[in-house]
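Review form for a predicted model. The reviewer records the input and the model, then writes brief findings.
Reviewer: anonymous (R2)
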Amino acid sequence: MHPLAAAAMPDRSSPAATRPASTKLYPVFADLHGRSVLVVGGGGVARRKVEALLEAGAQVLVGAPQLEATLAGWAAEGRIAHLAGDFDASWLDDAWLAIAATDDAQVNRAVAAAAQARRVWANVVDDAELSRFHVPARVERGPLQIAISSGGGAPMLARLVREQLEKQFDASFGLLAQLLTRHRDRIRARWPDLGARRGAYARLLSGPLQALLRKGRHLAAEREFDAALKHGTQTTHRTGSVALVGAGPGDAGLLTLRALRLLNEADVILHDRLASDEVLQLARRDAERIEVGKQAGDHRTTQAQINALLLEHAQAGKRVVRLKGGDPFVFGRGGEELEVLRAHGIDYEVVPGITAAIACAAYAGVPLTHRDHAQSLRLVTAHCKASLDTLDWMALAQERQTLAVYMGVAMLDLLRDRLIAHGRDAATPFALIENGSRADQRVVTGPLSELAERAHAQHVQSPALLIVGEVAAFADTLHWFGAPPLSSATLPDTGERYLSTLLFEGIEEGSDDAWLATLDARAEAA
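Model under review:
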């Protein structure tokens, strides 16, 4: 350094030189391939640092009296070099970087001082003042890396930001980075002018490449890229798409990351009545929202109208999310809607959701299978009398299996009667779960013979899932969410037995014809 410049600079020769607890850092992605890096320490923290360095291709020297098991294995395999003993400043002679990762503050300070004397950049784990470079929190998607730093002052905040970014960037970003890296020379040759190349990149990145990679259609993505290079990336009419997204049972915490991303990218959201407000609040704020739910006696939107809306918005070039309660392919008419989209050449994808049987059972403490009680599980829909007439009741009435009945609230008496008539023990436990996973979840339990009466007494309404089988008894002992189950001890003493339910508010989405009928409800007093 020029003498005048050196005289004007503050003295920073000491590793303990005072600096703000959090200061702006100059971001650097270092190429350590084939370069020596020293890690001092032989425990778990050192192992995590060494693992990241090996992934970067560094030649890692680990100095410590002893190594934990994984590090010792790597040393035996020749992946790292072990410098046995206490820290010696000579370990730094050929190092480009140094990391102090011991639990001894005196050793860490000695490493920092020795590195400073040799002008080697050093990081001391959990000590911002002694560190001359920081290891950022990172989000990695193949060659694409996003680094987050708080300047050493708030590392937990940096971790929180990383966790949020992990949800926003899926694996397709890494695949896209790999594709563009492979063809970088071709892109530069096709658009040698920097301004034109930037415009081409912008059009490539806003095109269909990433969507194709996200669906695992790698060959189609390569062909799309080749076509873009051959014909240019001229802006064309935007092609719309539809994503069938499972909203789960209602608890927004059960939404998949992919579902959350699509909700934030959507131009239009067609949602069922069972898609909870909690889930809808996570969607893009300016997206157009259209409720297309159906309920008993009030088919505000028929399936034909829903199909027409999907086509209308997709053909207008919009990104459409068809948001369905539960899972699109479990009694959700997802297959029918895909057939319509395919027939009209509309691009689509499906994002599974946690179906009601899985979610409601879990939130009620009911294991759907159990080695001692149930070796099989049947998912059944009972939204209308016609659907009941098509079921194999002999098979459904077998013991040691679990029945999960969707859309059956309006005909619990018929379900009970047919199961018992075909051999199911009247004492078989049931669990009827209303608004499963939501804040107002209720669970009614009892023997199969009293199913309709207990549901009637508690005014159970849809959405509700019925579980019949030996495992349903666990609802009384393993419940963990919401209020305890409503069992015989909590039922009102009416002095009468009821053989059927009242007309309930409605049934779940997916049916065009609800069979709504009341039977003669009163019987002789018990």
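Findings: The radius of gyration is 32 Å.
Further findings: Residues 21 and 153 are 5 Å apart (CA to CA).
Recommendation: see findings above.
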